[in-house]
Amino acid sequence: MTAQRSIRWRMFLLFCATAGALLAVCYAGFYLLFERVVREQLDRRLGEVAAPIIADLIVDPEDKDVDMLDIADEYFEVLDTSGAVLQRSKNLRVNLPLAPRPGFETVYLPGEGEIRLMVIPFQAGEETWLFVSGESTRDENAALATLRHFALALLPASLLATAIVFGLYSNQLLARIEAVVGQLRQFVSDASHELRTPLAVLQGETELLLAKPRTTAEYETAARVMDSELKTLSRIVDGLFTLSMADAGQLRIAPEPLYLEEVLEEACGLAAPLASQKEIHIERHLDRDVLLHGDPAFLRQLFLIFLDNAIKYSPRGTRVDVTLAKHSDVRIRFQDEGIGISKEDLPRIFERFFRAAPSGESHSGGLGLSIAQAIVQAHHGTIQCESTPGVGSVFTVQLPLRA
Prior knowledge:
Helix content: 40-55%
Largest sheet: 5 strands, antiparallel
Strand content: 15-25%
Distance between the termini: 46 Å
Strand order of the largest sheet: 2-1-5-4-3
Number of domains: 3
């Protein structure tokens, strides 16, 4: 519990630090963008105000209209190239402290505050003069100050709200992580257990063969045992690979138009030798011309899983009913007369490597039903199971006509 609380706090602090940094960067970026737009609008306005006045000065350089201008928060001067003031607006009590060169400049004027200036050269007769258009930055600075105060107030509020939301959901997140880690550990443990048995048999047979010379019959017997165990290992590895692809969302099916009864007939034919060994009859009730878009290889594997389980866990001389019916969807039903599955084990039969209690039917003794579920889900279908101990089990697969 202490370790879990420590992890939670570390995650919480890391999240808050990351969220705070991202929020600060976003607010700073927005503020800089807003400041740039405000400054550019002010500079453009200075040029627009200066244009008609310069036009009048070009027409009549001797006109002293600039001396008569008295507009609040707007200031004007006319200079020669040496910097001497030729005219200035009435609201300017002193000359503007600026260098006589074209461009923009920001100066501080006692009693007026910060002023943004634009110096524009123009031709007055045969002389070159400089026109200075200025405007107070009071309104722009006030807008930027308001935005800064708003951001400084909103940043901690946003961070607090984010932290509260994260705190509310962190327990659920950690619970899910713990569940995933637990499933991973159980999966690795179960896989190791399943692989250990065939590997131990192979090792034992190999050591036995190498201990001393054997007869041809003994070598053949050992080879059959080793072949059987190698096939078991191959099935487990193939199953694990299929499930890993399904977990990663990369179980790619190749759907094509097919008649489902043909695939089902083929699967029943492949299962027939195993059924005949136990004198089990496979009874088929199949609708004809059931056209489906699906992957024939995966569907064949799916049907063989249910047939193999039904035959494996049914007594000798019983029957397995296979039904294919077409409705708004397609339903494939596998019913056996086996030992059944207990009510307690039924919800877990699709778990990987789950083994039912001895009194129940261990349909999922390995990876079969997990693989079946992955194949059905890849075809956008569902599986349902009904079972009664001592009576048998019924697995029903429902598939859409277009997977």
